[in-house]
Amino acid sequence: VQEEKIFAGKVLRLHVCTMEGAEWLEEVPEDTTVEKLKERCLKHCVPGSLEDPKTVTHHKLIHATSEKVLTDTKTVLEENIQDRDVLLLIKKRAPPPLPKMADVSAEEKRKQEQKAPDKEAILKATANLPSRNADRTVAHHNMRDFQTELRKILVSLIEVAQKLLALNPDAVELFKKANAMLDEDEEDRVDEIALRQLTEMGFPESRAVKALRLNHMSVTQAMEWLIEHADDPTVDAPLPGQTPPEATAEAAASSAEVAAGPSSEAGGEEAKDELTEIFKKIRRKREFRPDPRAVIALMEMGFDEKEVVDALRVNNNQQNAACEWLLGDRKPSPEDLDKGIDTNSPLFQAILENPVVQLGLTNPKTLLAFEDMLENPLNSTQWMNDPETGPVMLQISRIFQTLNRT
């Protein structure tokens, strides 16, 4: 008996298949290498194929169950192949042929043709064109001028609308209703449930109101703010840009006294005075309210409170834009926001001559829309989509764009 047969490992019966449909059993010891097993399989299914040494490397064995490609240098035991396992003998795919030099050159040429020109190529191609110094800052200022001019138009149209509405006998009642609607402004309200939760925790009501307004009515964030500022000596100071409750009460009392004062002799004058007082109340309620968080953040940079409030008013409560305004030329100025357009200018005359605008100016809702857009320009989209005020705003925009291009 030969020695290698005495000490031979366990013999495994393996079921081998090919892509062409051939099937057979191979009996090999478990210490046989995958490469040797592959040679035996090739002898069985492709007679004479081993004359070419590349034939073995161009084939691979795959374990059917695990879909694993077997490594040539490992043994059947190391690959954890069991008796009765199924193996697949597959020819490897030939690698794609290397591109010819002519093809490579053509591809590189195509890429170069599609490549965007560099600065030198642009200057060379445009050398004969007349030079025009286009300043990007001018376009930026033109956009600013557009916003400023539109605001001036609204200021002047408000004055015209007030004069027209004063002639309407029902104007007083209409604006009383509008005034009542403004009293229900959501921005002045405080979430009563959130306020009660904080006061039940032991926080003073005035301090809890301030914390809620600073943290957009979030109870959790307001509570964290109250705990963090418990020892702050300025914790009970009113928010920047907001009137203390006492001053608000005094203003309301004084306006009530004016409204209840002696009436004029004529009924028309009395109605006109009452309407004027209502206009003043509406304007007071539409006064700009700066974002407290933005005020605090900008004041921490070293800016004065009044400057910060002015910057936020000019830039519609946008903190980043307000910071750029404070660091830049500070145009437009806060005073520019209250100036109207030249009433003799062709632009304003064209707006007043438009029939849609004329009809809209007799509608109290249009006046309220103009007032709202002055202090809250971001609400312009809402009024543009309104069936009553939208056509008026559209005509104003068209007239402005038409005359601005001429």
From TrEMBL:
- The UniProt transmembrane annotation reads none
Q: Does the keyword Kinase apply?
A: no
Pfam family of this protein, just one? UBL_UBAC1
The subcellular location is: Cytoplasm
One GO cellular component this record assigns the protein to is: cytoplasm
Instruction: Check the record and name the PROSITE patterns matching this protein.
Output: UBA
What name appears for this protein in its UniProt entry? Ubiquitin-associated domain-containing protein 1
**Which organism is this entry from?**
Bucorvus abyssinicus
